[in-house]
Amino acid sequence: MPPEPQPATRRPRRETVTGVPRSGRRPPGHAPARSEISEQTTLGHTYVRSLMRSQLRAALSALATLALLVGSLPLLLTLPAALAPDGPAPSAEPFLWAALGAVVHPVLWLIARWYVRRAERNERDFTGLVEGR
Amino acid sequence: MNQTYAMAAVAAVVAATVLIGSLGLRISRTTSDFYVASRSVKPALNAAAISGEYLSAASFLGIAGLVLLQGPAMLWYPVGYTAGYLVLLVLVAAPLRRSGAYTLSDFAEARLESPYVRRLASLFVVGIGWLYLLPQLQGAGLTLEVLTGAPDWFGGLLVALVVTGAVAAGGMRSITFVQAFQYWLKLTALLLPALFLVTAWVADDAPRARFDAPAVFREHTSVRVDDTVRLALDAPLTVTVSGTVDSTTYDGRRTTLGEGLHRVEAGTTLGFPSGARVPERSPDPDDPLGWSGSLSGEPDGQRLYATYGLILATFLGTMGLPHVAVRFYTSPHGRAARRTTLVVLGLVGAFYLLPPVYGALGRIYAPELALTGDADAAVLVLPDRLVGGLAGELLGALLAGGAFAAFLSTASGLTMSVAGVLGQDVLPSRGVRHFRLATPLAMAVPLGLSVVATNVPVADAVGLAFAVSASSFCPLLVLGIWWRRLTPPGAVAGLLAGGGAALTAVMATRAGLAPDGWPHTLMAWPAVWSVPLGFLTMVGVSLATPRHVPPGTPATLARLHLPEGLIGRPHPEGAER
Fold this sequence. Notes:
heterodimer, A: mainly alpha, B: Sodium/glucose cotransporter, 2 domains, three-stranded antiparallel beta sheet, 22 helices, disordered C terminus, transmembrane helix (chain B), symport (chain B)
């Protein structure tokens, strides 16, 4: 759990200056993109929008996978009956047990893990972009 | 079943709950502790607490009962409960935590800057919370009645007292520990007996459960009918009857009941020979609650529609359940909220592997439960049937304890969130003292209802809560988090149209106002149309009132989506409440 850093705008940090900053790294809180965002300029909004778009894309991909793999099952299960309108339809029961009773849970978890990794990568990339690293 | 063991197990669970709750009391000091456990709960502990809270009686007892009655199509319930968390994770988990608010009402106010939206959201939180609490209390009553013969109001009262005490005393901090403990208890209580049951089933040459044909009695079985039932026979059936069938009184004679409907009076004992088919219980026209969420027995098209109604309600409704949402505020930051949800998905998924086992075994070994209408008791009676002896009794007691843990944990989470909203929005001032006053109030209403309105099936009332939540809070959260042009009038209109329509439709079905066939199906499973209605109304009215877009929207959205610590975050009023 990283502690929430003090907001730069409220309490200016007191620093002891002993020399030139090493390797030209800017101290955090003074990167230009960062202040664009915290001062809510148009450019700052564009940054936020770009993050929202990438996060929404990740979320929608996960939802599409869910709809495709799980949401389509009820339709899929009506297929045997639709294909054999007269004769006895092959029973979908064993498939239903396997799919809904067991297989679906690891599938859901894998989709979730994919999403969490992707969302965290989006946030890391964004932080890197804003802090100019 | 041996009553002493079951009583001891239930007493032990209650005692453990009170004990852990009072340990939490010693460290619960500040208001922040009370409401959000000081926002410092680590993912592993928080995930166990969330899962413990989420797995209610409907999961512990209800799913096995539904599978016993209606077969594997009922597994859409647990799948929906789990997938709801996935949808919650990808759409709202991290932003909801980052919104820095505590209840759904706080979120509505922070995002839309309108006290009206806040008040309406509070109304929905309390309503959905009470709808969900009611079946927990009734389920507790039923379980204690089945296990120990206590009067049916006693279980509900016991749960209400324990929960009110634990919540009012320790708040969120102590509830977190209690619920984490209860998750592991519930998992153990279901896993351990399942291992024994499956072993016994294999030793019995592993008979297959059949769901495409009526269940069959495996041995001579006597069934006592406690409530008057109507049986529909499609072939003559020879049984021994002591009691009254079709207003003729028998005293243990063998008799043959012809095809058609038969009315079996309460208190009658029917003796079925080995190999006889279990007769179908026919829906009672006098009982408006008798429709009981059936996904089978309807024409194909309606069944498909009902399945999708269930899928939409559970997939989208989870995010709006008050006790689920409140939990996210106890994570330290957005990333932890996401990781917590991932662990929850694992824990909940692992749990849901077990109830289907009980359902299938119940179909083989306890088919008469379909006849007496106590299918919810399948989980509780199986150890006695399959294992028997002392081991069977001990396992049955373990299951009883687990079932009680299910009532207690879900009821405490719900009470916690309803009391939070009541304490902030209804009672005059904010603070721990008022929270303590709000707790009994939050519990008293559903307790009163559970005494008045008996026989609401557990899964039905829970399903209603999901449908209302999916049609009201799902649009509010999703549009609030991802759409810049949402306005307060749009939110109000969407909440009322979606949530109101879902509530009205289900209530009308309950009251028997819906004509048979498609209208009935459409109204009993409203989510397919009421969720789009909620979304479309919210979007449409928002677009029509563009001047009402809250001025702080860009700043709020930045706070919802940016990782913590990236920018100076103004602390919203009440964030450290």
